Amino acid sequence: MTTLITGAAGFLGSHLVKSLLAQGKQVIGIDNLSTGRLQNIEDVRSHALFEFFECDVSAPNVLELEAVHGVSEIYHLASPASPVFYQSAPFDTIAANTIGTQQMLELARKNHARFLYASTSEAYGDPTLHPQPEEYCGNVNTWGPRACYDEAKRLGEVICYEYFQRFEVQVKVARIFNTYSAGLRNDDGRVISNFVTQALTGEDITVYGDGNQTRSFCYVDDNIRGLQLMMEKDAATGEIINIGNPREISILEVARLVKKLSQSTSRISFHPLPLDDPKVRRPVIEKARKLLAWEPQIHLEEGLSRTIAAYRNQLIVN
Protein backbone atom coordinates (compact mmCIF):
# COMPACT_ATOMS: atom_id res chain seq x y z
CA MET A 1 0.00 0.00 0.00
CA THR A 2 1.45 3.36 -1.09
CA THR A 3 0.27 6.74 0.19
CA LEU A 4 0.58 9.99 -1.75
CA ILE A 5 0.76 13.25 0.24
CA THR A 6 0.55 16.59 -1.55
CA GLY A 7 2.02 19.50 0.37
CA ALA A 8 4.42 17.00 1.93
CA ALA A 9 7.01 19.61 2.95
CA GLY A 10 4.44 21.84 4.63
CA PHE A 11 3.47 21.98 8.29
CA LEU A 12 0.77 19.29 8.35
CA GLY A 13 2.17 17.36 5.42
CA SER A 14 5.61 16.85 6.96
CA HIS A 15 4.11 15.62 10.23
CA LEU A 16 1.89 13.21 8.32
CA VAL A 17 4.83 11.92 6.26
CA LYS A 18 6.81 11.10 9.40
CA SER A 19 3.83 9.51 11.14
CA LEU A 20 3.09 7.19 8.21
CA LEU A 21 6.76 6.25 7.73
CA ALA A 22 6.96 5.37 11.42
CA GLN A 23 4.09 2.94 10.79
CA GLY A 24 6.06 1.26 7.99
CA LYS A 25 4.02 2.69 5.10
CA GLN A 26 5.39 3.52 1.65
CA VAL A 27 5.00 7.27 1.14
CA ILE A 28 5.32 9.55 -1.90
CA GLY A 29 5.53 13.27 -1.19
CA ILE A 30 4.81 16.13 -3.59
CA ASP A 31 5.43 19.81 -2.89
CA ASN A 32 6.29 22.84 -5.03
CA LEU A 33 8.08 24.41 -2.01
CA SER A 34 6.21 27.70 -2.35
CA THR A 35 5.51 27.66 1.38
CA GLY A 36 6.73 24.18 2.33
CA ARG A 37 10.37 23.76 3.32
CA LEU A 38 12.75 20.90 2.63
CA GLN A 39 14.10 21.21 6.17
CA ASN A 40 10.71 19.96 7.41
CA ILE A 41 11.40 16.56 5.83
CA GLU A 42 15.20 16.60 5.81
CA ASP A 43 15.42 13.87 8.45
CA VAL A 44 13.41 11.44 6.28
CA ARG A 45 14.61 12.36 2.76
CA SER A 46 16.81 9.27 2.63
CA HIS A 47 14.23 6.94 4.22
CA ALA A 48 13.91 3.71 2.22
CA LEU A 49 10.10 4.00 2.15
CA PHE A 50 9.95 7.66 1.07
CA GLU A 51 10.15 9.35 -2.32
CA PHE A 52 9.88 13.13 -2.74
CA PHE A 53 9.12 15.08 -5.90
CA GLU A 54 9.30 18.85 -6.24
CA CYS A 55 6.35 19.71 -8.45
CA ASP A 56 3.13 21.69 -8.49
CA VAL A 57 -0.04 19.72 -7.86
CA SER A 58 -1.97 21.98 -10.27
CA ALA A 59 0.52 21.48 -13.13
CA PRO A 60 -0.48 18.95 -15.83
CA ASN A 61 2.80 17.03 -15.58
CA VAL A 62 2.12 15.94 -12.01
CA LEU A 63 -0.03 13.11 -13.36
CA GLU A 64 2.84 12.01 -15.59
CA LEU A 65 4.96 11.02 -12.60
CA GLU A 66 5.33 7.27 -12.87
CA ALA A 67 5.60 6.92 -9.09
CA VAL A 68 2.03 8.15 -8.43
CA HIS A 69 0.39 5.45 -10.51
CA GLY A 70 -0.78 2.66 -8.26
CA VAL A 71 -1.14 4.71 -5.05
CA SER A 72 -3.93 3.48 -2.80
CA GLU A 73 -4.34 6.54 -0.57
CA ILE A 74 -4.14 10.27 -1.38
CA TYR A 75 -3.97 13.02 1.23
CA HIS A 76 -4.43 16.32 -0.63
CA LEU A 77 -2.91 18.90 1.70
CA ALA A 78 -1.22 21.18 -0.86
CA SER A 79 -2.14 24.85 -0.39
CA PRO A 80 -0.83 27.96 1.32
CA ALA A 81 -2.68 28.04 4.63
CA SER A 82 -1.79 31.27 6.41
CA PRO A 83 -3.17 34.70 5.43
CA VAL A 84 0.35 36.04 4.88
CA PHE A 85 1.06 33.43 2.22
CA TYR A 86 -2.29 32.92 0.52
CA GLN A 87 -2.91 36.65 0.22
CA SER A 88 0.48 37.08 -1.46
CA ALA A 89 -0.23 34.21 -3.89
CA PRO A 90 -4.01 34.19 -4.42
CA PHE A 91 -4.05 32.55 -7.85
CA ASP A 92 -1.67 29.78 -6.79
CA THR A 93 -3.91 29.17 -3.77
CA ILE A 94 -7.00 28.97 -5.94
CA ALA A 95 -5.25 26.63 -8.40
CA ALA A 96 -4.01 24.22 -5.72
CA ASN A 97 -7.50 23.83 -4.29
CA THR A 98 -9.40 23.60 -7.57
CA ILE A 99 -7.24 22.36 -10.46
CA GLY A 100 -4.98 20.49 -8.05
CA THR A 101 -7.94 18.93 -6.27
CA GLN A 102 -9.53 17.73 -9.50
CA GLN A 103 -6.23 16.26 -10.72
CA MET A 104 -5.73 14.35 -7.48
CA LEU A 105 -9.34 13.16 -7.56
CA GLU A 106 -8.85 11.96 -11.12
CA LEU A 107 -5.80 10.03 -9.95
CA ALA A 108 -7.86 8.55 -7.12
CA ARG A 109 -10.60 7.55 -9.59
CA LYS A 110 -8.17 5.77 -11.89
CA ASN A 111 -6.40 4.02 -9.01
CA HIS A 112 -9.56 3.24 -6.99
CA ALA A 113 -7.75 5.02 -4.16
CA ARG A 114 -9.12 6.54 -0.98
CA PHE A 115 -8.95 10.34 -1.03
CA LEU A 116 -8.81 12.85 1.83
CA TYR A 117 -9.16 16.56 1.12
CA ALA A 118 -7.78 18.98 3.70
CA SER A 119 -10.43 21.67 3.80
CA THR A 120 -10.64 24.30 6.50
CA SER A 121 -12.74 25.91 9.20
CA GLU A 122 -12.44 29.02 7.01
CA ALA A 123 -15.24 27.43 4.97
CA TYR A 124 -17.51 28.82 7.71
CA GLY A 125 -16.18 32.36 7.16
CA ASP A 126 -17.09 34.81 9.93
CA PRO A 127 -19.78 32.54 11.37
CA THR A 128 -23.22 33.68 12.46
CA LEU A 129 -23.83 30.26 14.03
CA HIS A 130 -21.68 29.30 17.00
CA PRO A 131 -20.20 26.74 17.52
CA GLN A 132 -19.98 25.44 13.95
CA PRO A 133 -21.40 22.02 12.96
CA GLU A 134 -20.62 20.53 9.56
CA GLU A 135 -24.18 21.27 8.36
CA TYR A 136 -23.65 25.04 8.72
CA CYS A 137 -23.28 26.63 5.28
CA GLY A 138 -21.11 29.49 6.49
CA ASN A 139 -20.87 33.25 6.11
CA VAL A 140 -18.02 33.82 3.65
CA ASN A 141 -17.26 37.12 1.93
CA THR A 142 -16.47 36.42 -1.73
CA TRP A 143 -15.12 39.96 -2.25
CA GLY A 144 -12.27 40.33 0.18
CA PRO A 145 -8.64 39.45 0.93
CA ARG A 146 -9.42 36.03 2.48
CA ALA A 147 -11.74 34.87 -0.30
CA CYS A 148 -8.98 33.33 -2.42
CA TYR A 149 -8.46 30.75 0.33
CA ASP A 150 -11.95 30.43 1.83
CA GLU A 151 -13.80 30.14 -1.46
CA ALA A 152 -11.15 27.98 -3.13
CA LYS A 153 -11.45 25.48 -0.29
CA ARG A 154 -15.25 25.53 -0.58
CA LEU A 155 -15.03 24.92 -4.33
CA GLY A 156 -12.57 22.11 -3.64
CA GLU A 157 -15.26 20.52 -1.48
CA VAL A 158 -17.74 20.81 -4.35
CA ILE A 159 -15.34 19.02 -6.70
CA CYS A 160 -14.94 16.29 -4.07
CA TYR A 161 -18.73 15.97 -3.86
CA GLU A 162 -19.04 15.53 -7.63
CA TYR A 163 -16.36 12.83 -7.75
CA PHE A 164 -18.05 11.03 -4.86
CA GLN A 165 -21.51 11.22 -6.40
CA ARG A 166 -20.63 10.65 -10.06
CA PHE A 167 -17.64 8.31 -9.87
CA GLU A 168 -17.96 6.78 -6.39
CA VAL A 169 -14.47 7.91 -5.39
CA GLN A 170 -13.88 7.19 -1.70
CA VAL A 171 -13.77 10.85 -0.71
CA LYS A 172 -13.38 12.20 2.83
CA VAL A 173 -13.32 15.95 3.59
CA ALA A 174 -11.66 17.23 6.78
CA ARG A 175 -12.51 20.76 7.87
CA ILE A 176 -9.40 21.54 9.88
CA PHE A 177 -9.48 24.12 12.65
CA ASN A 178 -6.47 26.06 13.96
CA THR A 179 -3.55 23.64 14.35
CA TYR A 180 -0.22 24.41 15.96
CA SER A 181 3.14 23.06 17.14
CA ALA A 182 6.80 23.95 16.76
CA GLY A 183 6.71 22.99 13.08
CA LEU A 184 4.87 26.17 12.15
CA ARG A 185 7.02 28.69 10.29
CA ASN A 186 7.73 31.68 12.54
CA ASP A 187 7.14 34.05 9.62
CA ASP A 188 3.74 32.80 8.51
CA GLY A 189 1.70 35.27 10.55
CA ARG A 190 -0.41 32.72 12.42
CA VAL A 191 -1.32 33.38 16.02
CA ILE A 192 0.71 30.77 17.90
CA SER A 193 3.89 31.16 15.83
CA ASN A 194 3.65 34.95 16.12
CA PHE A 195 3.07 34.99 19.86
CA VAL A 196 5.75 32.44 20.77
CA THR A 197 8.41 34.04 18.56
CA GLN A 198 7.62 37.50 19.90
CA ALA A 199 7.58 36.33 23.52
CA LEU A 200 10.95 34.58 23.22
CA THR A 201 12.65 37.49 21.45
CA GLY A 202 11.27 40.16 23.77
CA GLU A 203 9.23 41.87 21.06
CA ASP A 204 5.72 43.16 21.66
CA ILE A 205 3.11 40.40 21.47
CA THR A 206 0.80 41.79 18.79
CA VAL A 207 -2.92 41.28 19.33
CA TYR A 208 -5.28 42.38 16.57
CA GLY A 209 -8.53 44.03 17.60
CA ASP A 210 -9.38 43.96 21.31
CA GLY A 211 -8.32 40.32 21.60
CA ASN A 212 -11.80 39.08 22.49
CA GLN A 213 -12.16 37.18 19.21
CA THR A 214 -11.86 33.45 19.87
CA ARG A 215 -10.18 30.43 18.31
CA SER A 216 -9.97 26.71 19.09
CA PHE A 217 -6.40 25.42 18.91
CA CYS A 218 -5.60 21.77 18.18
CA TYR A 219 -2.09 20.35 18.70
CA VAL A 220 -0.68 18.82 15.52
CA ASP A 221 -0.38 15.28 16.93
CA ASP A 222 -4.13 15.20 17.60
CA ASN A 223 -4.85 16.59 14.14
CA ILE A 224 -2.69 14.02 12.34
CA ARG A 225 -4.31 11.21 14.33
CA GLY A 226 -7.72 12.50 13.24
CA LEU A 227 -6.76 12.65 9.57
CA GLN A 228 -5.41 9.10 9.62
CA LEU A 229 -8.57 7.81 11.28
CA MET A 230 -10.63 9.53 8.58
CA MET A 231 -8.60 7.84 5.88
CA GLU A 232 -8.93 4.43 7.55
CA LYS A 233 -12.62 4.49 8.44
CA ASP A 234 -15.18 3.51 5.81
CA ALA A 235 -17.75 5.43 7.84
CA ALA A 236 -15.97 8.68 6.89
CA THR A 237 -16.43 8.11 3.14
CA GLY A 238 -18.64 10.77 1.61
CA GLU A 239 -18.55 12.83 4.81
CA ILE A 240 -17.35 16.28 5.84
CA ILE A 241 -15.89 16.09 9.35
CA ASN A 242 -14.63 18.85 11.64
CA ILE A 243 -11.14 18.12 12.98
CA GLY A 244 -10.35 20.57 15.76
CA ASN A 245 -10.39 21.24 19.47
CA PRO A 246 -13.76 22.28 20.92
CA ARG A 247 -12.05 24.23 23.72
CA GLU A 248 -12.55 27.89 22.82
CA ILE A 249 -10.19 30.61 24.05
CA SER A 250 -9.81 34.32 23.34
CA ILE A 251 -6.76 35.59 21.49
CA LEU A 252 -5.92 37.83 24.45
CA GLU A 253 -5.98 34.83 26.80
CA VAL A 254 -3.61 32.99 24.46
CA ALA A 255 -1.22 35.95 24.47
CA ARG A 256 -1.22 36.05 28.25
CA LEU A 257 -0.76 32.27 28.48
CA VAL A 258 2.21 32.31 26.07
CA LYS A 259 3.76 35.17 28.01
CA LYS A 260 3.33 33.27 31.28
CA LEU A 261 4.59 29.89 30.03
CA SER A 262 7.63 31.44 28.33
CA GLN A 263 8.35 33.72 31.31
CA SER A 264 8.56 36.58 28.85
CA THR A 265 8.93 40.27 29.64
CA SER A 266 7.23 41.23 26.36
CA ARG A 267 4.33 43.64 26.57
CA ILE A 268 1.03 43.00 24.78
CA SER A 269 0.20 45.61 22.13
CA PHE A 270 -3.04 46.07 20.23
CA HIS A 271 -3.47 46.71 16.50
CA PRO A 272 -6.40 47.11 14.06
CA LEU A 273 -8.30 43.93 13.22
CA PRO A 274 -7.75 42.73 9.61
CA LEU A 275 -10.70 42.73 7.22
CA ASP A 276 -12.96 39.64 7.46
CA ASP A 277 -11.06 38.21 10.44
CA PRO A 278 -13.54 35.78 12.09
CA LYS A 279 -14.81 36.89 15.51
CA VAL A 280 -15.44 33.36 16.80
CA ARG A 281 -14.28 29.89 15.87
CA ARG A 282 -15.17 26.62 17.59
CA PRO A 283 -15.95 23.22 16.08
CA VAL A 284 -18.75 20.85 16.91
CA ILE A 285 -16.95 17.49 16.89
CA GLU A 286 -19.81 15.07 17.61
CA LYS A 287 -19.46 13.55 14.12
CA ALA A 288 -15.73 12.92 14.68
CA ARG A 289 -16.50 11.33 18.05
CA LYS A 290 -19.20 9.11 16.55
CA LEU A 291 -17.60 8.07 13.25
CA LEU A 292 -13.93 8.09 14.22
CA ALA A 293 -13.94 7.69 18.00
CA TRP A 294 -11.67 10.76 17.90
CA GLU A 295 -11.24 13.80 20.07
CA PRO A 296 -8.21 15.90 21.04
CA GLN A 297 -6.09 14.64 23.91
CA ILE A 298 -3.39 17.29 24.30
CA HIS A 299 -4.41 20.31 26.36
CA LEU A 300 -3.46 23.79 25.19
CA GLU A 301 -1.10 24.42 28.10
CA GLU A 302 0.83 21.21 27.36
CA GLY A 303 0.95 21.88 23.63
CA LEU A 304 2.10 25.46 24.14
CA SER A 305 4.81 24.33 26.57
CA ARG A 306 6.13 21.86 23.96
CA THR A 307 5.98 24.54 21.27
CA ILE A 308 7.76 27.15 23.37
CA ALA A 309 10.53 24.70 24.30
CA ALA A 310 11.12 23.76 20.66
CA TYR A 311 11.12 27.38 19.46
CA ARG A 312 13.54 28.31 22.24
CA ASN A 313 15.91 25.52 21.11
CA GLN A 314 15.69 26.74 17.52
CA LEU A 315 16.60 30.27 18.59
CA ILE A 316 19.60 28.96 20.54
CA VAL A 317 20.80 26.90 17.56
CA ASN A 318 20.38 29.81 15.14
Summarize the structure.
The protein is of the alpha/beta class and 318 residues long. The chain is 38% helix and 17% strand. The strands form 4 sheets. It has a 7-stranded parallel beta sheet, sandwiched between helices. A two-stranded parallel ribbon has the order 7-10.
Throw out a few tags for this protein.
318 residues; alpha/beta; Rossmann fold; seven-stranded parallel beta sheet; two-stranded parallel sheet; 17% strand; decarboxylase
- CATH C-level: Alpha Beta
CA-CA gap between termini: 39 Å
CATH superfamily: NAD(P)-binding Rossmann-like Domain
Rg from Cα: 19 Å
Query: Which CATH architecture would you pick?
Result: 3-Layer(aba) Sandwich
What's the shape?
A: globular
**What average pLDDT do the residues reach?**
94
- Order the strands across the largest sheet as they lie in space: 3-2-1-4-5-6-11
Number of β-strand runs? 13
CATH topology: Rossmann fold
SS-derived structural category = alpha/beta
What this model shows, in words?
- The chain has helices at residues 11-22, 83-88, 90-97, 99-111, 147-167, 191-201, 220-232, 251-261, 286-292, 300-317, and strands spanning 2-6, 26-31, 50-54, 73-76, 114-120, 170-176, 179-180, 205-208, 214-215, 218-219, 239-243, 249-250, 268-271.
- The chain has 318 residues and is an alpha/beta fold.
- It has a single domain (2-180, 219-246, 282-297), classed as 3-Layer(aba) Sandwich (Rossmann fold), CATH 3.40.50.
- The strands form four sheets. The chain has a seven-stranded parallel β-sheet with strand order 3-2-1-4-5-6-11, sandwiched between helices.
- The longest helix is centred in the middle third of the chain and has 21 residues, at 147-167.
- The protein is globular and about 55 Å long.
